Structures are given as structure tokens and as C-alpha cells.
């Protein structure tokens, strides 16, 4: 894994990938590099304007690339269902659950969920479940969930999944990222029981310079906080390309194990892809199953073809 670069990716011709949040930042880089290696890439984005722009940018950089925008708003389960119902291909080799929001002011999704938990976890839980028949029917398929080292700040609170009792933006973010890892853990377990060769893994970018850090302060007009984040991006962060490498590794590298967690090494916030530390609570079988059951109840999505 030492010094792994995007150019080390195996050839992706004949493979189809869906990348959520592919209009900017890590998602755009992930989609572009998969297309560079020959994959057909579906850019699953909330904004049509930015999604179409990303499609044009990739095609301009890579003439002949197979990329297409399709509408997906993870904050609206009706949009998630429409995307899955309209997915036009028989195979789905790579599902990259990349899109996310971070440290936003308190808000609600279209279905009434706390925004960070709703977008970062429940939206992707529903999307993955609705697309799972395509994944299961594709030999060698993978699902990659983009979590964060910040998950270490907090475990999920099964008694308050939507932060009704108290809302603290960074704790809510950490809980949503822990939920990503518990989801990967439980889905990997269920796939193993089913005898499936689908690999589900997690990745995180470390500290990468994207617009994720500035979105929350900008929404609230906290200009000093936004400036602070911009300075941090310039001085301390690695590039968006470097931040996307752990995701690309988890999605394409040989030997990636189910329920693995890849991030920048060796320090965890910048560097080449390497196995990443994760909190012990993200490998809790009981918590994983409880979150799974709650997620099914909240979204109404049940994974067909997988045992309990």
C-alpha cells in the first residue's frame, strides 16, 4: 500500500460506478479518476447545475470519458427512491457513498430527520439498500462508505438518533460518521452470512482541502469561522486528490478486506492510503444490528436477499 497513487488503480473498463456528491471536492476527484481508468461513472448529485458542470469538466479533462449526471438528493427519500428506480444499468460494480455534510446548524431533511444523520447515514442506507439487487448481481462489486476520523468524538446515541434532546453540531457529525462505520460493519457481516463476494469497506480522507469545512460557517454567516477554516485548508490540509486516494484504494485496490477502514497514513490526517484506526464501538455487533433495524424502520427500506 506504500505510496499508492491513483495511477496504481487497476483498469476499470467495463465497470460501472455510482459516486454520490460527485459535483465537487472528493466526489468529483473520485469520479474523475475512476473515469480516467475507464469506468462508466454516474454522477449522483443534488444540484443539476453543478452536476452538469462536473460532467462537462470531466469530459473536458478526459475526452471520451463515460460520465453522466443523475439527480439524487440524499436529504429526501423520495429522491433516493426515484434515483434507484431510474438507475438504467444491469450492473453496479462500485457504489461510492461519498456525499456528506459537516457541522451544520440544526436542520431537518425532507423526511424530518436531523440533517447530518439523515444525509450522511440514512440517505446512503436507503440508497445502498435500493441498489443492492444490482450490486449482488455484479461479480466483484464493492460498496465504499466515506466516513471520517472525527467519528472518534462520539458513538451513536440509540435513544436519540435525531438529536432531539440536545444538538451539538460536531457531536451530531461524529455520530453520523460512526453510523457510517457501523453500517459497513453490519452490511459486511450480512454479506458474509449470505456467501456473497461483495466487498463493503470504509475510507476517510484525513484533512483534505474541500468546501465541506466552510459550508456550515457560511450558512450561519460566521465569517471568522469560515476564514479560519479556509486558512486551515491552505496551511495544513492535503489536496482533494490526496484526500480521495483512500476512497479510490478501498474501491479498486486488490486485497481490500470487508469491513476495512482506509485513511491517510501514517498519522491519519495526510499521507498515502493505509489501514486506519477506528473506535472499538464501530465494530460492535449488537450496536450494528440495532442501528440497522432502526434505519430500516426510519427509511422503510429493507435489504432484499440478505439474511439477518
From TrEMBL:
<protein>
    <submittedName>
        <fullName>SDR family NAD(P)-dependent oxidoreductase</fullName>
    </submittedName>
</protein>
<dbReference type="InterPro" id="IPR002347">
    <property type="entry name" value="SDR_fam"/>
</dbReference>
<dbReference type="GO" id="GO:0016491">
    <property type="term" value="F:oxidoreductase activity"/>
</dbReference>
<feature type="domain" description="Ketoreductase">
    <location>
        <begin position="15"/>
        <end position="158"/>
    </location>
</feature>
<dbReference type="InterPro" id="IPR057326">
    <property type="entry name" value="KR_dom"/>
</dbReference>
<dbReference type="Pfam" id="PF00106">
    <property type="entry name" value="adh_short"/>
</dbReference>
<dbReference type="InterPro" id="IPR036291">
    <property type="entry name" value="NAD(P)-bd_dom_sf"/>
</dbReference>
<comment type="similarity">
    <text>Belongs to the short-chain dehydrogenases/reductases (SDR) family.</text>
</comment>
<keyword id="KW-0560">Oxidoreductase</keyword>
Amino acid at each position: 500500500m506504500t505510496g499508492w497513487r491513483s495511477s496504481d488503480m487497476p483498469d476499470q473498463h467495463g465497470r460501472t460506478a455510482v459516486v454520490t456528491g460527485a459535483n465537487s471536492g472528493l466526489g468529483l476527484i473520485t469520479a474523475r479518476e475512476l473515469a480516467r481508468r475507464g469506468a462508466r461513472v454516474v454522477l449522483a448529485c443534488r444540484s443539476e447545475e453543478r452536476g452538469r458542470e462536473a460532467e462537462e469538466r470531466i469530459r473536458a479533462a478526459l475526452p471520451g470519458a463515460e460520465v453522466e449526471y443523475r439527480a439524487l438528493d440524499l436529504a429526501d427519500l423520495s429522491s433516493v427512491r426515484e434515483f434507484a428506480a431510474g438507475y438504467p444499468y444491469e450492473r453496479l460494480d462500485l457504489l461510492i457513498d461519498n456525499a456528506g455534510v459537516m457541522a451544520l446548524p440544526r436542520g431537518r431533511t425532507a423526511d424530518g430527520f436531523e440533517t447530518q444523520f439523515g444525509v450522511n447515514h440514512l440517505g446512503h442506507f436507503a440508497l445502498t439498500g435500493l441498489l443492492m439487487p444490482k450490486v449482488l448481481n455484479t461479480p466483484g462489486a464493492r460498496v465504499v462508505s466515506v466516513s471520517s476520523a472525527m467519528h472518534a468524538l462520539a458513538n451513536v446515541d440509540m435513544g436519540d438518533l435525531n438529536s432531539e434532546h440536545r444538538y451539538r453540531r460536531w457531536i451530531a457529525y461524529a455520530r453520523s460518521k460512526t453510523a457510517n462505520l457501523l453500517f459497513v460493519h453490519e452490511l459486511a457481516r450480512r454479506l458474509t452470512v449470505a456467501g456473497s463476494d461483495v466487498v463493503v469497506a470504509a475510507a476517510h480522507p484525513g484533512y483534505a482541502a474541500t468546501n465541506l469545512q466552510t459550508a456550515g460557517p457560511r450558512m450561519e454567516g460566521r465569517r471568522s469561522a469560515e476564514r479560519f477554516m479556509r486558512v486551515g485548508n491552505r496551511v495544513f490540509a492535503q489536496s482533494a486528490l490526496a484526500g480521495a486516494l483512500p476512497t479510490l484504494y478501498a474501491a479498486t485496490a486488490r486485497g481490500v478486506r470487508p469491513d476495512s477502514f482506509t485513511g491517510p497514513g501514517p498519522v491519519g490526517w495526510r499521507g498515502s492510503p493505509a489501514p486506519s484506526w477506528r473506535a472499538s464501538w464501530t465494530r460492535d455487533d449488537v450496536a450494528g444490528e440495532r442501528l440497522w433495524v432502526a434505519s430500516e424502520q426510519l427509511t422503510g427500506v429493507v435489504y432484499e436477499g440478505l439474511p439477518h
